[in-house]
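Amino acid chain:
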Amino acid sequence: MIKTCANETCQQQFKTKDSRQKSCSKECADARRRKAITGPVKPPVDAVPDGYYVKKVSSKVGPSGALREQWIDAPLQQEAGTLVEQIPDGHHVRGVSTLVSGDGHTLAQWIKTSKQNETKEEILDRLMKTLPKKISARDGKIKAPRMTEKSDELLAVYPMGDPHIGMLSWAPETGNDFDLAKAREIMMNAMQELVVRGQPTSQALVVNLGDFFHADNDTNRTARSGHILDVDGRWTKVLQTGIDIMVYMIDQALLHHKKVRVINEIGNHDDHSAIFLSVALNAHYRKEPRVEIDMSPSRFHWHRFGKNLIGVTHGHQQKHENLEAIMAAERPQDWGETLHRFWYCGHIHHIVKKEMRGCVIESFRTLTPVDSWAAAVGYRAGRDMNRIVLHREYGEIGRDVVNASYLQARYQNE
């Protein structure tokens, strides 16, 4: 088929493309290359969805200027920096990076999320609903001891400073061997020794001052600093041993006191397992009316006995000098009605006792030796456990102490 060149100044005829290139003049070829192609010649071929706006249109046209293809860049109409993706259920936003255009529209966005951890209150609520069905109630009851009228005026307090159940220590490195078996032995022997000391009391307060467990989960690291912990055995084994120790200590208290209340303070090593311990003990003693397990997940616990007010906290989040004001603010009525006020604390593993204007603040030792980290930085302190007797009217009237050396010598052959 014969074709004519589209250049008006050329008008040469040709049969094929090759023949056109050979027959047309150089000026004709240059004119074809310089031919302006304008476009698009009509609006975008597709409508832009509601909520979007046209930012850019790219069109492909033919030699005659006819529209062949078209690309429409239509971002979501939104405020600059707003999130364009929903957060998955159970997740929370850890960070957002947003690329914004000069006209204030979001061009790209990267959202970092992580799984939302349960709050301590949610954990406590879940465990209280599920664990009692899995934990058997205490089989049999311990007969309540006979008490005199005088014993009703007294309260025995058994504060346990930082037991760190599950901690592993090697004597050549730290000066003392320690593991689950030794933890069980020294804690049980200490309680067995202390309950028979001093005057008989109708009421007892067993106080775990926090860090009852050395590790809070099977990663064997501290939650805040990620510090690697020396742990003896699997985490489940550590939990079971800790529960066994507490059950034995509570049972010993039941042998010598008519009423036993238990406080498990939350430490910096056992944020979650401290709650687990309380829930497990509450389930175990649910049919024992002489035992009360304090189920509050608070970092402060309280006990009122006559004119005595006791505050309990681990001590890693509050300075001692602030505790007096915290007690007055948290328990204003008890503060006004009591004369003898005490704070019992743990965390630092050594004795600190300071009398403030309105209360006495005391930190207690632990029966547990130092681990490799504490030994390396030079921490040293005595190891003991106390039994404190409070009179309903007159405050503290007696105290008994058993230390680790005495217990090891006393029970080494048993």
